[in-house]
Design brief:
340 residues; alpha/beta; Rossmann fold; Arc Repressor Mutant, subunit A; 3 domains; 5-stranded parallel sheet; 3-stranded antiparallel sheet; 12 helices; 14 strands; 39% helix; 18% strand
Length: 340
């Protein structure tokens, strides 16, 4: 393939290695080998952006199925007739529910994937994918699995600054010794049997340690300090990082102190943890869906508690994660064992 053909699609930053694997799979399909693909990532980490980029580089006709809520109608997952096309399916975690009979549409979809003569490229929430991998070995249906990576501070810098002209922004260094700590303590609390337990969570800034040993700490640019801080707080998640940037920028000025650490104190009992894990793994659920899946009688009360803690938001009847709380939520739920 020529160098020109290998260029990244317009507007795409990052994912070069992952896109190269997609190109290889499409080339194999052109040669008669069908290798269906699952793309998995955290919420806000660029699944849809990446799928749109695939649509731009596809060498065959593409058909796109985008799911935005739990699927209830078989007609929503119909593949086009014939053969030889590329079918792009976004947010496939909406194909199942964790209930009795809740896997019907997923089973039909997977049957369509393996029997179709189209190349099928899908995206999944990583926490749903891990669950489905355990309960139904979903990975066996997709010969190629691509996990979208966390962005480095340099990649986040390129992504965010692509929206601005050169020298449009002013980066001012107001770093304090407190902000330059190598180890920071961020306690996480949760409730077990009506008792609040606090577990200390320590974050180690390995990038700063590396810089100290390489003796480059004194030469680091202010903008690099800022994007390293954003990347650490966002956990390398590009969607969360962009939101954090937007909240921190006091146009045209940005300082390290403008970028705030996650202030949330997560306090959850097991039932609330499970409810929150459902929202985490599905991206968006309604209150009736949460009632049905969780089989809990106090869903409304628990949702209000999660809203008060600013862990979730409600939009048009759907409950979704607050992007700023993602890293705090994942850390807390992993400690309680409801996700892995």
């Amino acid at each position: 393939m020529s160098e020109e053909e290998q260029q990244l699609p317009a507007g795409l930053i990052g994912f070069q290695d992952e896109l190269a694997r997609i190109r290889e799979a499409i080339a194999a399909f052109e040669s008669g080998e069908k290798l269906d693909i699952a793309i998995i990532a955290e919420p806000f980490a660029g699944r849809t952006t990446f799928l749109n980029a695939i649509e731009q580089i596809a060498t065959r006709k593409t058909v796109k199925l985008s799911f935005s809520s739990v699927i209830t109608d078989r007609n929503e997952i119909s593949f086009p007739p014939g053969a030889g096309e590329i079918v792009l399916c976004d947010n496939c975690h909406f194909l199942y529910r964790r209930t009795i009979g809740g896997f019907k549409h997923l089973d039909e979809f997977l049957t369509a994937v393996v029997t179709s003569e189209h190349l099928v490229i899908t995206t999944w929430n990583v926490y749903s994918w891990r669950y489905l991998k355990e309960v139904c070995a979903i990975d066996k249906f997709f010969p190629i699995t691509i996990r979208l990576p966390q962005f480095s501070a340099a990649a986040l810098k390129e992504l965010i600054l692509s929206d601005y002209a050169e020298n449009e922004l002013e980066f001012e260094d107001d770093s304090t010794p407190e902000e330059k700590r190598i180890i920071t303590r961020q306690p996480i609390s949760f409730t077990v049997r009506n008792k609040i337990l606090a577990i200390p969570f320590f974050h180690i800034d390995f990038a700063r340690i590396k810089a100290m040993f390489s003796r480059k700490e004194g030469t680091k640019k202010t903008e690099d300090i800022i994007f390293e801080k954003i990347g650490r707080i966002a956990g390398g998640n590009p969607g969360v990082a962009k939101l954090l940037w937007e909240k921190s920028l006091q146009y045209p000025v940005i300082k390290p102190s403008f970028v705030k650490e996650c202030p949330l104190k997560v306090e959850l009992d097991y039932h609330e943890s499970f409810l929150l894990s459902l929202i985490l793994s599905m991206d968006a659920l309604t209150e009736p869906e949460l009632y049905e899946i969780s089989d809990e009688s106090e869903v409304e009360t628990m949702l209000h508690r999660l809203l008060r803690q600013r862990l979730i938001v409600e939009e048009h009847g759907y409950y979704k994660l607050d992007p700023e709380a993602l890293s705090c939520i994942v850390s807390a739920l992993k400690k309680t064992g409801v996700i892995w």
